[in-house]
Amino acid sequence: xxxxxxxxxxxxxxxxxxxxxxxxxxxxxxxxxxxxxxxxxxxxxxxxxxxxxxxxxxxxxxxxxxxxxxxxxxxxxxxxxxxxxxxxxxxxxxxxxxxxxxxxxxxxxxxxxxxxxxxxxxxxxxxxxxxxxxxxxxxxxxxxxxxxxxxxxxxxxxxxxxxxxxxxxxxxxxxxxxxxxxxxxxxxxxxxxxxxxxxxxxxxxxxxxxxxxxxxxxxxxxxxxxxxxxxxxxxxxxxxxxxxxxxxxxxxxxxxxx
Length: 258
Description:
- By secondary structure, the chain is of the alpha/beta class.
- It has nine helices and eight strands.
- The protein has an eight-stranded mixed beta sheet with strand order 7-5-6-4-1-2-3-8, with helices on both faces.
- The radius of gyration is 17 Å and the shape is globular.
């Protein structure tokens, strides 16, 4: 039987973690892993009373580093399909069985949750207009540069087959937010099939968000990732992000489970 593991990269998610887990009850997933990146609220205390595998970072390492721990642990635990879900309750977890179904059928290798079906629906779901415009603009550029047709490149709902995580050298990626963009460019580079499924928009005060300065840095770092990819493909300039991974890269680690 194929194993579905949900990983939740958590940082100060105390206000939304339980609601996220409640939605997961109906999805039939096999295991839930919460990786806490040294939260300063009571995320850990809440996670300890929930039916999850909890891993704690002793020090705050960053969003990308959190995902590295998530994926490494999911692979160690024999996951066939890995769902990365932000624990901020922005994404409807009930979509998980349907998204995994596309991977089981071999139609896709990577599925993203697309919050942007129509402008009216997205804005009525309270996505801030400036974030909507930035998301639309950057996604448009990324689709052109990568030859894709995704509705959104910046989703916190992602589903991967095991082969994707075993192929992509994600341990070489940034420890910051640009990890997500690097991962998708790598997925395109290694020939995986990407697609998306619609998810409702849920923006509210407790939902996680990065400020304008960090969003700008993220956007520039994303474009720089494409520069490095094009240089790797068309110039004699090798980039380790796009070199095949070694299985030893995901071995080891000093995280603490509880």
